[in-house]
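Hi V.,

You were right to ask for the full record rather than a summary. Here it is.
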Amino acid sequence: MPKTILSRILLPVLAALSACHSSIAPVPVPATDTPLAQRRDLPLFKRNPETRAHVKKEPVAEYRVKTENTLNDLYFTVRLYETPFTMKYLAKVDFEGLTGEDTIRLPDVGIPPHPVLEKGPEKYSCIVGLMDNNNTFRELKKVYVTGKGSELKITTLKHYVVTEGYRLVPQ
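Predicted structure:
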């Protein structure tokens, strides 16, 4: 009798287990024409240190345009200075006695930061940006004098997100 109970319980369990253990389909091999397969091997991401060991006193970038003031030798000037934080710079702006400051934060693209100042669309304007790891200029902020010449303004133009491969994507 124990044999009969054992065979009644064991045979259906074995049949169910053998049915569940069917052949496994082969794992598909990724095609060689996918973007992931075509990309070159990327270097390991190396974050910049959070702080600098040495902060330069002189500006790392400067943009200057002579103003139309005929009595004095005055300029519209934008200067970028290093701060103790690696990815932050201090922008100092001057226009005929008007002064202003702002903090410029650069995204960490895995290479030492390289801030750049370029001429803006208006006569007294400057675009603050950076050179990315493809040596492409990426604009961040615009520094300019209002139409009446009585105010300095700093406007954020773009925000970026660092993606795979240290590429910048506008937000």
